[in-house]
Amino acid sequence: MTEPVQDNPYGVNVPGSKTSLPWLPPSVLDDHPLVPWVEDSHAGQWVDVDHALDQVKQFEQCLKRLPEMILPKVDTGHLVVVTGPVGMGKTTLIHRCVHLAHQHLKRFEEYFARVSQQAPPPAPGQPEVIRPPHPYVAMTGGYDNRANGISTDARGQFASTQDINAALRDKIVDELSGYLPEKTLQRVRGEQDVHEAFKALSRLLAQQDALLLVLVPHMDWRDDMGSVRTDFLRSCLKHARSRIVLFVEVCHQNPDTAHEVVEEIWPDSALTHLKLGSLTSEDTVKFSQSARGDHPDPDAPVTSGAWLTSDVRQLRKRYFSIAEEQRRTGGEVIVTAADLGAPTLDMTAMARNPSAGAPVPRQSAPPPGS
Questions:
Q1: From 96-110, 169-183, 303-317, the region with the lowest mean pLDDT
Q2: What is the pLDDT of residue 69?
C-alpha cells in the first residue's frame, strides 16, 4: 500500500479557496498574509517573531476603548499605524488585530445577551445600555494590502494626498456595497470633501449599529523626508471618526525613521503605533515550532546571523521550498538547521507571490441577524 503524501506544514491556505468537495484540497501558497478572521487554519500559523506578541498586547489596550469609540457625543474612532521592514509581517499583524477585534465583539455580544435577558428595560428617560456594534471590514488593498489603484493616478504618476484619500473613500464604499444602504453609500461617495464623507459614513454606521475596520495599504511614498507620509497619517487621524478604526501600513527599514514619520502626530489618545523589527536568532525555531507543533525544527537556532538580515517572508518561503522537495521525493517532511542553510538574495522575495494576489471572494462578517 502506498504511503499517503504528507502535507506541507509551511503552506498557507488561500482564504476563500475551500470547496465542499472533501477530496479537492484547498489552494496552498508559500507566501500569503495570515487572515485568521476569515480562514480558521491561519490562527495556528501565527508566530511571535520580532516581538510581535508585544505589539498584539498593545493593540488589546485599544479594544478597552471600544465603548468610547461608539458613543455618539465623543465622535472619535482610532488610528493604528503599523511600521516595520519589508516582509516582517505588518499585514499579518493587522489581520491579527482585526481577528482580535472580532473576538472581542463576540464576547461583548454574548455578555450583552446574558445581561439583557436578566435586566429589566430602562425606565423612561434613562439611556439604553450600549449595544455591541456589528463589525464590517473594508480591505482597501485586498488580502495582501496592496495600494494598486489607490496611490497612482490615471497617468501612472503618484497621486496627491487628496486623490489618495478620495480613492480610499471609494474603495470603502465598494467594500460596504451590499451590506449597508446603497443610496446612503452613494451620498458618501458623492461628498466632494473627503473629511465630510467620513463624517457621513460615521453617522451611517451609528444608524446601522456597526463598527468599521478599514485596512489602508502601504504606499510607495516618493519623499525621503517623510513629510507627505506624515500629512497622510494626519488626514487618516481626521478620518477616524466615531465607529471607524483605520489600520495604516508604513514600510521602513530603519525603525528610527518610522518613529520620525509618526512622532509629529504623537501623542494622541486616538493613535496607536505598532512597531515590528528584525528577526532574532531564536525566531527560526519559533517559526518551526508554530508549524510543527510538538516536533520543533530546526533542531537548533541559526546562530551564524545570516538570517538576521532577512525577513519572515523569506523564512517561510525557504521552509516551504525544503518541505516541498522532501514531499516530492517521498521523504519525511522535517526541516533541520542544516537544511535551512544561509539565505540567498532573491529580489522576487521582496514582493509577494504574484499568485497570492489573485482575486478571491470578498469576505466580511455576515449582516446582523444572519
A1: 303-317
A2: 82
Residue 265 neighbours by CB distance under 10 Å = 18
The span from the CA of 352 to the CA of 276, in Å, is 18
Integer angstrom CA distances of residue 309 from 57, 85, 277: 26, 10, 11
- At 29, list the grid cell: 501558497
Half-sphere exposure of 19 (CA within 13 A, CB side): 7
Distance CA 238, CA 233 (A): 9
pTM: 0.84
The gap between the terminal CA atoms of the chain, to the nearest Å, is: 47
Distance (Å, whole) CA 174 – CA 206: 19
Are 277 and 85 in contact by the 8 Å Cβ rule? The answer is: yes
Q: Which three cell numbers stand for residue 121?
A: 428595560
What cell numbers appear for 88 in the block? 516582517
Peptide bond into 298 cis (omega under 30): yes
pLDDT band at residue 49 using 50, 70 and 90 as cut-offs: confident
Torsion from C-alpha of 309, 312, 314, 317, nearest 10 degrees: 160
Q: What is the CA radius of gyration of the chain?
A: 22
Residue count (the chain) = 370
